Amino acid sequence: MIKNKSRQKILLGTAFVIVLVSVSGFALSKTFSNTADNAEAVSDKKVITVQTKEILPKTVSRHISVSAIVKPSSEAKVSSKMTGNVAGIYFKEGDQVNAGQTIIRLERDRTLLTAYHNAQVNLDNTRAAMKKDKKVAKVMVETSSGDAKKQAKAGLSSVKKKAELQIAIAQGQLDSAQAQLGNTVIKAPISGAINKTYAEVGEMVMAGSPVVNIINAESIEVELALTEFDIGKISIKQEAEINLAAYPDEKFIGKVYYVGSASDPINKKFPVKIKLENEDGKIKPGMIAKVNIITARQENVLVIPKTAVFMDGNVEKVYLIDDDSKIKIITVKTESLDDNKLNVVEGLVENDEVVINGNYELEKGEEVMVRN
Predict the structure, then answer these.
(1) Is 229 in the same domain as 164?
(2) Residue 338 is part of which domain span?
(3) Which residues, 6+ apart, have CB-to-CB distance to 366 below 8 Å?
(4) Which of 64, 152, 209, 369 fits 141 for a cystine, CB–CB 3.0-4.6 Å?
């Protein structure tokens, strides 16, 4: 009986210890769990990464932008002055020619050569006959006296006038025949490159039909059409920046050399022409150009990207980074420079560090990580 009571006490004590250990373990587990949750919550609070830009004064330009097609400064479509067969073509497409060089020759038929020969003979014969008549009339003047001498002098004067007229007629016939022969030789009116030929050897060309096209692209011309709202800002010698899709990393500089004084009656726009040098031949006629005509330049302008500004009601604001990498919120006033940039009129000074990316609902005093 005594042994049974002792055994019951032992069992009750053991059970109590087990319950105590279990409760303690649950409490510890709960504590560790709360600590872990707190640690996880702390780790979830990440530092925001932003991109910034130091504000420095710049020179900015105001301009008028328009697109246009590039043209050569001089171009000539050469036509044949007579109908005939092509006897020779002395340049191919892409070749350079100088003004006055023969580029095409037409066949000289027998009729042209005969007409030229006859005109030359006629002029020579006329000169000889007139020379003989003048000699006879001069002798009569020298050997006559009184009224006969007067008549002889009048006769000499008449012979001279007739001679001048006859020689002029004969010379005209020769010049006409020579011009006809000259028309068989087609020469380059300007220096440049053969851009296109429209004839082949042995082919007949008609009078007035084009046979070759020559372009001179050593200088380039861009012709624009501007509205009445823009034309008043344009003047001769203004600088123009030319951007071409073929050379996206290059900027070509030209100058305004012509400003129209009257608008086109159809589109009501004013013509403006810009010329730029193209000695290396990089710019090809027909390219599409984006033209910015510089109308004004402004020095020491504080420029920020539009992405840096956010609106608080009707107020423009920006985020700045202080020396401790913490956020400051500054009110600014800006004016637009173009689609992407703003001119800061008030609120910022040189060397301010403005947040330009990652500026989403930041709070004053919030610490951020700058990664540029």
Answers:
(1) no
(2) 49-60+300-370
(3) 48, 326, 327
(4) 152
